[in-house]
User: Which sequence fits this backbone?
């Protein structure tokens, strides 16, 4: 994997993590306005998403240390994890913003 491609992916990951962090903070702020079951659901969902975020950061760190074939293999997993995290945050936001 070219160093340029590697840097581009790392930049994309960092950008996405920043967006995810912002959306999670918005969900947590929104949570304060709610009560009962919806609040518990937001707590559960944000905990799951924060776990995925943490795993993505760890994978990204591993990716940064990798080279060649290993970097290429890790990049595919990172791209998948990135899409999964983005989709999860988007789904949570759509689900809870209506409350």
Assistant:
């Amino acid at each position: 994997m070219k160093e340029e491609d590697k840097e581009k992916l790392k930049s994309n990951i960092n950008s996405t993590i920043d967006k995810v962090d912002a959306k999670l903070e918005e969900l947590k702020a929104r949570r304060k306005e709610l009560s009962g079951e919806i609040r518990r659901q937001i707590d559960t969902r944000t905990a799951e998403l924060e776990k995925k975020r943490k795993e993505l950061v760890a994978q990204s760190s591993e990716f940064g240390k990798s080279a060649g074939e290993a970097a290429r293999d890790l990049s595919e997993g990172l791209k998948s994890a990135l899409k999964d995290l983005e989709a999860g945050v988007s789904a949570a936001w759509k689900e809870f913003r209506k409350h």
Remarks:
- The radius of gyration is 16 Å.
